[in-house]
TrEMBL record:
Classification via PANTHER family: PROLINE-RICH ANTIGEN HOMOLOG-RELATED
Keyword Ion transport: no
Organism (species): Desulfocurvibacter africanus subsp. africanus str. Walvis Bay
A Pfam family per the record: RDD
Bilayer topology: Multi-pass membrane protein
Record-level GO cellular component terms: plasma membrane
Coiled-coil blocks: none
Domain annotation RDD: ranges: 33-162
TM segment ranges: 46-67, 73-93, 129-150
Name used for this protein in its record: RDD domain containing protein
Subcellular location(s) per record: Cell membrane
Lineage top rank: taxon: Bacteria
Keywords of this entry: Cell membrane, Membrane, Transmembrane, Transmembrane helix
Length: 179
């Protein structure tokens, strides 16, 4: 005879999904730990991109000061800044994730690589698709990232659509570097 555990009945304060998890339990959940490490990797990469973009911004501001009277030049400089704001991150993410190292500096620092569903290195085209899908998903103010919290593998919408995964790197992985 099987007896139900004393906790099998709902308790006061339980939510729709079962017992309330403490903050400690939430942060130790594998999907949440993966999310936090992926966020840390992305912040690391944004910092690197920003450092690269500062000289471009200073150059454009200097040109704007010099050519402040000429409207077409000012418009062209703003267009150049807008295009470079898209091109620099795209080239950074797509080239790094499709390289033999399979990760950006931030992902490598957190111990991740990007692979396809079969565990192989992704192509530049797939990395470009992944980056564009990430940008589209970001337009929803992060709402599409919420399902990744409930996914067993921690996959987000841009991972599903581009058929890629972010997995822990191991010393056996080509191009592995702990930092």
């Amino acid at each position: 005879m099987v007896f139900p555990s004393p906790r099998s009945q709902p308790q006061e304060g339980d939510g729709l999904l079962g017992p309330r998890m403490s903050l400690a339990n939430r942060s130790s959940h594998p999907a949440n730990a993966l999310l936090m490490k992926r966020v840390a990797a992305y912040v690391h990469d944004l910092f690197r991109i920003t450092l690269f973009h500062i000289p471009v911004f200073i150059f454009i501001v200097a040109l704007l000061i010099i050519f402040q009277e000429e409207g077409r030049i000012v418009a062209a400089l703003f267009a150049f800044f807008g295009v470079s704001s898209f091109l620099i991150p795209w080239l950074y993410f797509a080239s790094a994730e499709s390289s033999f190292r399979q990760a950006t500096k931030g992902k490598r620092a957190e111990g991740f690589i990007v692979v396809d569903k079969a565990g192989r290195r992704i192509s530049f085209c797939r990395a470009t698709l992944r980056h564009l899908l990430f940008l589209l998903c970001s337009l929803t103010f992060g709402l599409v990232f919420i399902p990744g919290l409930f996914s067993k593998k921690g996959l987000f919408l841009h991972d599903y659509l581009s058929r890629t995964r972010v997995v822990p790197s191991t010393p056996a992985t080509p191009g592995f570097s702990p930092r």
